[in-house]
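DM from R.C. (forwarded with permission)

"hey, sorry to bug you on a friday — could you get me a structure for this? deadline for the figure draft is monday and I only need the backbone to look sensible"
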Amino acid sequence: MGQTIDFAIGDIQTTAYVAVPEGAGPHPGVVVTFHRDGIDDFTHWLVDDLARNGYGAIAPDHYHAMPPGKTVDDRKEFLDDAQMALDLKAAADWLGAQANIDGDRLALVGHCMGGRTTWVGLVSLPGVFKCGCPFYSGNAFGRIGTPPPPMERLAAIDCPVMGFFGNDDRNPPPEDVDRIDKMMAELGKEHEFFRYDDTGHAFMGADPEKFREHSARDAWTRAVKFIAGHTGGTAPDVGAVFPAHEVA
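My reply, with the result:
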């Protein structure tokens, strides 16, 4: 359904995976910030599924600074939260420039590394997104690059947040989720966290050992409905799961 496009972030030339629903719209939009494995089949599926539900969606390539021959295990050497925020802003601007997308009705979603980058986008780009959905956002208290960690900048958030976490996850562990929940509450930020028992990290992704169907389906159903409620979009009664796990 989607396609890979050439994508400019200021003077940086990179790529993004995009999918736009048919029809004049204007449709709401979602920026998808990818997990540690980058723009892979799972990221394609997220973007495509959002488009099937009536959202323009784009996943920018945050790994544009990595030289050839480097792998995702080397990524932190080349990532910077300030640049990733610029990546997200460029993605939001791309959506807003499409004739059938309403750039004032955007959400931000990410899993794993992208869950952390969702927090980065929300604290760095007030006014850009109507809501955000971080999934199992590890390392959110740590610094990547020049800016302070996103958890030190929560006061800047100006939109509702819905987060999803596994109670067996070690990154973030439940105690980190408790800390974030408390910090958001003390700041008076609108938020709701869903936590799943017998569920660890990456429970929505492609790895069959980590995948938990009930948790994945419940979380994605809630996330798309949450996005719909804050962007004027639509949502299915029951959300999909990554096709590799669908029972024929």
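R.C.: lifesaver. The chain has one domain: 3-232.
me: no worries. The first strand starts at residue 3 and ends at 9.
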